[in-house]
């Protein structure tokens, strides 16, 4: 009987083999890095069109009336909670410095790109808005691509009020699925690519580079618990729910999120329990939760901010206030359209890392522990979406059960 090994297991095995090869053969095997570089480029090539199509389709298929008051409230909660999550990740990385202790080599040109040409806050904000969408796509300017996609999605939603443009939305969703299939295909070689990158990093820097990974996971776990406490506290105050009701309502959601590490797989259970256990009316849950899965990700934002700060510490780079602000903004916008994608954490890092001027191989170290980080990410993602639904339902008087636990 043929035994099928899950991709996550394959990646862990590839990472372990890479560690062994790097430790045993040292600099003799450093040339294997090209295999990992090819893998990262293959991931990168699908990122921009994937985000572009996903965001336009997600916004464009919403009815015009849902883009009004309810849409603004939903967007405000998504942005607000994601901003807080990114700030928590940034502060944890800045305060506890998980990447300090090792000194990875960085190309002098990249150091100059990262540290030179200080940009004012006004110039940075102006840089969010594209003058040419094709230029933004070619250069991989994530923020500009997403700004354009959001505007295009709103226009498409209004134009499609009579379903005249449904074929465009269908076409975008089909393209989106093709890009997801492409990423899945590329991820088949992830064990080899990540193993090669890890081998080259270990070969050049020794086994000490593994120590920060444990620090990173511990900090991410602490950040997750802290942020869950914030979300549950908000629910208890605004929706007048007891802690018992909150824990009862989120029990199944948390278990599914932790065991599947997938926001998409968790969505059916999330929607069922949001209505049956937490008392959210269907018209709220059916709008907020699917949209949240595609466009909102508290866990990914925290992960990306913490990861970026950790990576700068790998290379001994100091962070200015403007660079910290840029990390937070990138962590927020990179969440759009990558939450439900297989290997979403890896894809999102592939968006942010080059934008910050850091080498792509930085991703390899964190890719090896991505499954463990995925547990924390998914928990925060689904709880953040459900929290938003509860808060909006409470504000719209669409919360049925209040503080009383509901039986299945």
Descriptive notes:
This protein has 408 residues and is mainly α. It has a single domain, classed as Proton glutamate symport protein, CATH 1.10.3860. The protein has 18 helices and no strands. It has helices at 7-25, 33-60, 69-96, 108-115, 121-126, 133-139, 142-159, 166-187, 190-205, 211-238, 243-260, 263-276, 282-295, 298-314, 321-333, 344-356, 362-367, 370-395. α10 (211-238) runs antiparallel to α14 (298-314). The longest helix is centred in the first third of the chain and has 28 residues, at 33-60. Residues 402-408 have low confidence and may be disordered. The chain crosses the membrane at residues 12-36, 42-64, 76-97, 136-157, 178-203, 209-237, 249-267. It is a multi-pass membrane protein. It is found in: Cell membrane. Keywords: Cell membrane, Membrane, Transmembrane, Transmembrane helix, Transport.
Keywords:
408 residues, Proton glutamate symport protein, disordered C terminus, 18 helices, mainly alpha, globular
